[in-house]
Amino acid sequence: MAQLREPSDQMIRVLLVDDEVRLTELLSLELDVEGYAVEVASDGATGLMKARSNPEPDLIVLDWNLPDFSGVDICQRIRSSGVTTPILMLTGHDDIADRVKALDAGVDDYLVKPFSIEELMARLRAMQRRAQGFSGTAQGQGSDPTFMEVGGLTLNVNTRDVHRSGQRIQLSVKEYELLHFLMSGSGKVLERSEIMKGVWGEDFYGDDNLLDVYIRYLRQKIEIKNQPNLIHTVRGVGFIVRDESNPSMS
What we know:
By secondary structure, the protein is an alpha/beta fold. The protein contains eight helices and twelve strands. The chain has a five-stranded parallel β-sheet with strand order 2-1-3-4-5, with helices on both faces. Strands 6-7-8-9 form a four-stranded antiparallel β-sheet, covered by helices on one side.
């Protein structure tokens, strides 16, 4: 394998977790040419250790099929340890159930094999932009309020806790992000494209049917018997979060 450049503090660090030697060599060379600092792990356990290292990588490219653990399992372990590094999953699984499984585990984007190097680079750049944008929002002025409430449904931005009528609601990473986005626009009709950009990013390449899947998941978790429904479909447009039992919200 050709010698890669020595990493510097200014370079974006990419952790590549894949056991296919020829693929990792090719990707490492391409990433090096593009100015990234590359570190490779050939199994899930090593990848998990390096993902949790200090400093953490800036981006992670993670294969679904690894010799010891699945990429989904590794992603869940990475997220459970508090690491928020953007993750791009490489996978041969292309049906919507597998996409949802990966996104639920905390994956930020996925790329189905076989893929072009150009598309992989574009997705890494998109994830990097989104990560920088979220960081700037969190540190800037006028950030989201700490506490949101609609119809007895509460969301604490700092702790990411969600409750309704005193009951704690367990949400996946993507379910929380979707609910947070919807509640941020409470009382306003949000278009499908607006929601997709806000939750999955402007450069997301997936199927927007995922939005309907996650809306269904959210409704199943937050709707309570004898309590008003809060997520409403506006046909042909998108969705709105509104407590219709409260006249001031109508």
